[in-house]
């Protein structure tokens, strides 16, 4: 019943080109029940909107070719509100829900949904990329959740994913629906 598991299952079936093995209509109806008044999505119906769950639901709906079920303007307004405009240290970063500090991982979770909906231009991408790069460990490599924290693999992956979606640097393009490199998806015949 958790939207994270719905995403994982639909992603895998999409990669295997086996989406006909599930009741797509029932899956879509469940995801729509997880949508909230603010446009965001939660893990289950009536759960708080959260950037990670927005990615799971929007990614699943995109793989199922059901994005028309999403009010993209309302959803992306909520996602735009996740960009931090407070203290300089966190300026431009994204958070997963109101009143939380920015975290590099939301450079993927929030931005991927915006990319799927073609609304990345609604945020300040230069400020976001600056935030991600501030979190890079210049001595040892890797990216952390916030400036001056220890780098880890999780935040490094999502920081690089965010930079890819922003088309910054020489990072290869990642498909926001599948969270995989576009060139590999083409190689296996998904794209």
- Could you tell me the strand content as a percent range? under 5%
Mean pLDDT: 96
The number of strands is: 2
Computed CA radius of gyration, to the nearest angstrom:
16 Å
> Reading side by side through the largest sheet, how are the strands ordered?
1-2
CATH class: Mainly Alpha
Count every helix, treating DSSP H or I runs of 4 or more residues as helices: 8
What is the succession of H and E elements? HHHHHHHEEH
CATH fold-type name: Glycosyltransferase
Q: What does the overall shape look like?
A: globular
Residue runs with pLDDT of under 50 for 5 or more positions: none
Distance between the termini: 28 Å
Class based on secondary structure composition and strand pairing: mainly alpha
CATH hierarchy: architecture: Alpha/alpha barrel
EC number: 2.5.1.60
Cofactor: Zn(2+)
Family: Belongs to the protein prenyltransferase subunit beta family.
Function: Catalyzes the transfer of a geranylgeranyl moiety from geranylgeranyl diphosphate to both cysteines of proteins with the C-terminal sequence -XXCC, -XCXC and -CCXX.
Report on this model:
Belongs to the protein prenyltransferase subunit beta family. Residues 1-177 form the Prenyltransferase alpha-alpha toroid domain. It comes from Reticulomyxa filosa. The chain has 191 residues and is mainly α. It has a single domain, classed as Glycosyltransferase (Alpha/alpha barrel). 45% of the residues lie in helices and 2% in strands. It is built from eight helices and two strands, in the order H-H-H-H-H-H-H-E-E-H. Strands 1-2 form a two-stranded antiparallel sheet. Strand 1 and strand 2 form a beta hairpin. Helix 1 runs parallel beside helix 3 (51-63). It is globular. The chain starts with a helix and ends with a helix.
């Amino acid at each position: 019943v958790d939207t994270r598991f719905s995403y994982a299952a639909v992603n895998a079936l999409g990669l295997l080109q086996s989406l006909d093995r599930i009741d797509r209509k029932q899956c879509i109806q469940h995801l729509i029940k997880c949508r909230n008044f603010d446009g965001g999505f939660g893990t289950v119906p009536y759960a708080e909107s959260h950037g990670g769950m927005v990615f799971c639901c929007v990614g699943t709906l995109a793989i199922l070719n059901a994005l028309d079920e999403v009010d993209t303007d309302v959803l992306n307004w909520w996602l735009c509100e996740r960009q931090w405009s407070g203290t300089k240290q966190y300026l431009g970063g994204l958070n997963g829900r109101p009143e939380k500090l920015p975290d590099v991982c939301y450079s993927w979770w929030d931005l991927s949904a915006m990319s799927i909906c073609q609304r990345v231009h609604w945020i300040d991408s230069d400020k976001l990329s600056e935030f991600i790069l501030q979190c890079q460990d210049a001595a040892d490599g890797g990216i952390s959740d916030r400036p001056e924290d220890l780098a880890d693999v999780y935040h490094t992956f999502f920081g690089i994913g965010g930079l890819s979606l922003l088309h910054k640097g020489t990072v290869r393009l990642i498909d926001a629906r599948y969270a995989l490199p576009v060139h590999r998806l083409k190689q296996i015949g998904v794209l």
